């Protein structure tokens, strides 16, 4: 029953975001990310940028019942919409936090998240990444969205990764965009 509610909610949210131009992930992107999540099988997923919960709901269908998602959103109206959507879908393993991620991240548990998804303010991606790294397990996977479409807004992220020689790969998930996939282990040599 819950999966039917989630499916209906996702269909409704897609209609809403198309009308209101809410920056949600595409269905192709969602399917690709769900496959990554299934392969990684994370216990604790961190999402930076909830919007109305569209991506979070997709992710909830790919994680185990014993896993959880912590999602951060700084826009109150978006956070509020997401919380309502999660409650309507009767999902209990999503922890939605409203506030600026740069202020919330330092307060989260260290060495906890094994999958991190970043899709918030593009110009702040590098800050989110650096603040989230200590919160990740050594084998954590990091996925950063919109890296092709908004590359000009995240030049410091690309500069940092190049300077520090951090290995990453770009995956084409939409006709006009790609996601970046990294692993925390590739940052460990930076701190040694």
- Strand sequence of the main sheet, in spatial order? 3-2-1-4-5-7-6
What string gives the helices and strands in order? HHEHEHEHEHEHEEH
* Estimated share of beta-strand residues: 15-25%
Average pLDDT value? 93
Q: Helical proportion?
A: 40-55%
Note the overall shape: globular
**Tally of helical runs:** 8
N/C terminus separation = 49 Å
**Integer-rounded radius of gyration:** 16 Å
Low-confidence stretches: none
According to DSSP, the number of beta strands is 7
Structural notes for this entry:
There is one protein chain. With 192 residues, the protein is an alpha/beta fold. The chain has helices at residues 2-20, 27-40, 54-60, 76-88, 101-104, 125-132, 155-163, 188-191; strands at 44-48, 68-73, 94-98, 113-118, 136-144, 169-174, 177-183. The N and C termini lie far apart (49 Å).
Q: TL;DR of this structure?
A:
With 192 residues, the protein is of the alpha/beta class.
Topology:
Elements: H1 2-20, H2 27-40, E1 44-48, H3 54-60, E2 68-73, H4 76-88, E3 94-98, H5 101-104, E4 113-118, H6 125-132, E5 136-144, H7 155-163, E6 169-174, E7 177-183, H8 188-191
Parallel strand pairs: 1-2, 1-4, 2-3, 4-5
Antiparallel strand pairs: 5-7, 6-7
